[in-house]
Amino acid sequence: MAIKAFRVRMLAGTIVGAAALCWTASPAAAQDSPVPIPADQQAAADANAAAQGTQPPAATSSDSDVPPGTTAQENGPDIVVTGSFLRNVRQEDRASPILSVGQEDLAKTGITSLADITRFIPQNVGSAGGIQDLAKGGGADSRDTRSANLRGLGSGATLVLLNGRRVVPIDGFVNLNSLTPEIAVSRLETVLDGASSTYGADAVAGVVNVITDTRFRGLKLSGQFTHIADSPAFNVGAMWGVGDGGFRSVTSIAYRNVDRLQNGERDVTNFFNPSAGAGANPGSFILYARPRTASGGDVIINGNNYSTLYDRFRNAAGQVTVVDPNCGSAETQSRYVPAANSPGFGLGSCQFSFQAQNPIRPASQSLLIHNDTTYEIADGHQLFAEISIYHQDAQRYGVPSFAQNRNGPTPPIVPAANPLNPFGVDVGFIGRAIGSQGFAGTLYKVQRDQVDQRHLVVGGRGTIGGGWNYEANATWSRGEVNSVDKDTDMRLFQAALNGFGGPNCNIRFNGAGSGAVPGQGNCLYLSPFAKDNLTQDPSLIFNIQTEEIANTVREFLIGEAVVNGTLVELAGNPLDVAVGVQYRQERQVARYSDLFQNGFGAFNGPFRNTDLKREVKSIFAEANYKPFEALNLNIAARYEDYGNFDTLAPKIAANLRPTDWLSIRGSASKAFQAPAIANSTDALISTNVANIIDPLDGSIVFRSLQQFGNPNLQPQKADVFNIGTTLLPVRQASISVDYWNYKYVNQIQLQNGQAVINADPRGPNVIRDSTGAAQSVIVTSYNAPSGTQTSGIDIAGRFELETGALTVGFRNNLSILLKYDVDTGTTVYDGVGKRNNYQTSPLTAAAAPRYRNVAGIDFSLGDHALTVDWRYASSIRDDYQQVLGAPEVARIGAWSVFDWQYAVRFGSDRRFEVAVGMTNAFDKEPPRAIYTGYLSTTSDPFGRQTYGRLTARF
């Protein structure tokens, strides 16, 4: 308590003593480019233009002057500032680098979802969710979801806001596609600096703020069809704005449909990626006794004597494991790999690739509705409300059945009485319940996800008097995911092996019911042998695909109040301050059906129901002061109390403009990220799968990772430093350079399952079955003690040239990664230029190309516009599953693609626009990566995408 009291007094003293310091930001102007450019460049360019005697066009002064389908300007724009609670500070006084993308910029990219804009931000290093990455998981590949991930510090280190307010992270991160229809976006601003002093937790790497157009008047319609081979997509949107200066309401709606894309539909992912062991198909069988025919003779299959094989190779327990007799046949499309001592059959492994049947992305249908309404209740006082409603249905087409991930004391037994058992004795089965040929024509298992998200904000703002302003609001943000999947219930599976299969067999949990006779009437025998895959009764799917349901709800309830104004004038200049408080209640509820929880599922689980709550209380302040016109000084601080821990995040910054053509900025801050609510408990919070090498026998198989929380976790903190400059060497040109550095303390890392099993193969965190095969690995998060560091340089520039009626603009945004520490828990290594998928790399590590660049040229001639973009990520070392320190064996090549778009406006007031374009115009395949085929955080496998869009404004 003494420490908390001291921090509160320190914060109060900081506010009062801020006479010479400030924190400043202002609304970013939309840039005339699809590539984000630091926001201060536009203001600096405007200042330079003013010095040259030119002026921007005057703002519309009356309603009658506003063309249909445009943004009204009466009474000045609504002030939405990213990175500050202060108002009326100049754009060029910003001390933090901010990238700004406006509505026109989004239109030039041809993106079909807001999340796709991250590929035009080189400071965004990969994303969670979206395109499948088998090696990393990276979020749900069963639905349309995507995160931001600035600087590669993890999706949880980037705070995503909608109009400056938090949105519930339903996927463990905020799904960028769930925020607002693209048609409603006024601009998207990205703060490339620690922002915890303003927004609190999760703003370590920066902030992405989506700002909607609240002053649109009229009607706007838009539709786009995007052709992607085997996976077309279309989206339609509408925006309707009504009202005048006292009342305004803008409603937008968007519908998006995306077809699924499978690995088999792309060369880069359609390769033989063998599964073996419990994931094999055809499977393996444990012979517990000498095979024999009904007459007691030797069992000979395909000319091979399995009885004499048993005699020769059985172990001390009288057992021998053999692969399916049809392994290696053309019908099963499998590959028999004999053991070293194999007589040429039986012993070894059966390899089959389910790669082609797995998805690159799921099919999805999304509906998003958004409304902003403002009502002026009195002069200088407004009430406002914001509502966002999001719904998504998604279908993931994948392998028809899961592998056996947990067998219990013994694997499923195919009894000797099963007439389809060719060995004539009881055998144990290890493999997938549905064979490689597609049992009874069942080629896929379809997982269905339904996502519902609601976001409601109500509040008021206005003037208090004496130049002071206030804003108070309450936010309710709730997301729910209902996932319906299918797994093999090992009880029903065993019943079918015993002859009690099919949906109409009277089998109960405690045995056969009345009239149930093995293999007779409604009761069927199931065979796990490849020879019977296509000839069995289709109704036996009942025993192989059992429905299981997972329901997750996350909810935020936030109350916030801020006042800002001029505290005092010092030497004739105002000291502007903002002070605020916030209360945030977080809740996360997870509910799972029986098969997820009871341990009888072949693959999924175990999961446990949870209901977790947390309260966060914050106070924050910032101040701005200009001792003279060329120098802006700023300070901000925020104190947050989570109950079991608390933290203080201060920030100090300065911006110097000695001349109209030069500005110098610098900032230093402490940022932090609190552990996720589930991560702070001792509960089982998730179960996933990963490719694991068992050091005891060298086998490589998918195994479950059971992640438990860690109640001892502390917030990860970072010392953030940025220094930069903007130059305007000539008219219509600007160059911006920033050096950034993040130094971590107590960085939160998730253990790598491979590192856990390597450290102690038979330890308590490795769950093995009765045969000694590893079934699950227990992992948890931890605070890395090393103090890791990442740093780099951002360089952005632009130049515009006018030749008669033709305007040509050149732009470039380059991010250079100088340092990217990866802490394995025992060793820290520099991950720059690496895939960072060593055996011991934490799952939170990202691929780290040294160079990422986005450049472009814009041509404008009257109503015609042509844009060409170039996107580039440098090559990296492919260290997949290597031992740290091993020599390089492969590289993932550079990713370099070109996009273009042509657009023309026509009609009265240029209210119609047609645009056509291509993404990845030269149809370049992604560079190859070990195991996954390609690396989703640096490239994509879609190939050339051709699109057409029609927009109309009324």
TrEMBL record:
Q: Please name the SUPFAM superfamilies in this protein's record.
A: Porins (SSF56935)
Task: Give the record's keywords alphabetically.
Answer: Cell outer membrane, Membrane, Signal, TonB box
Q: Which residues form the signal peptide?
A: 1-30
Entry-linked InterPro entries: Beta-barrel_TonB, Beta-barrel_TonB_sf, Plug_dom, Plug_dom_sf
Q: Specify the TonB-dependent receptor-like beta-barrel domain's residue ranges.
A: 454-920
A GO CC annotation recorded here is: cell outer membrane
Species for this entry:
Sphingomonas guangdongensis
Question: What name does the UniProt record give this protein?
Answer: Iron complex outermembrane recepter protein
Q: Does the keyword Cytoplasm apply?
A: no
Looking at the record, which segments are called Disordered?
A: 30-77
- Regions of compositional bias (Low complexity) in chain numbering: 39-60
Its subcellular locations are:
Cell outer membrane
UniProt domain TonB-dependent receptor plug: residue ranges: 92-207
* Keyword Transcription regulation among record annotations: no
The record's comment on protein family reads: Belongs to the TonB-dependent receptor family.
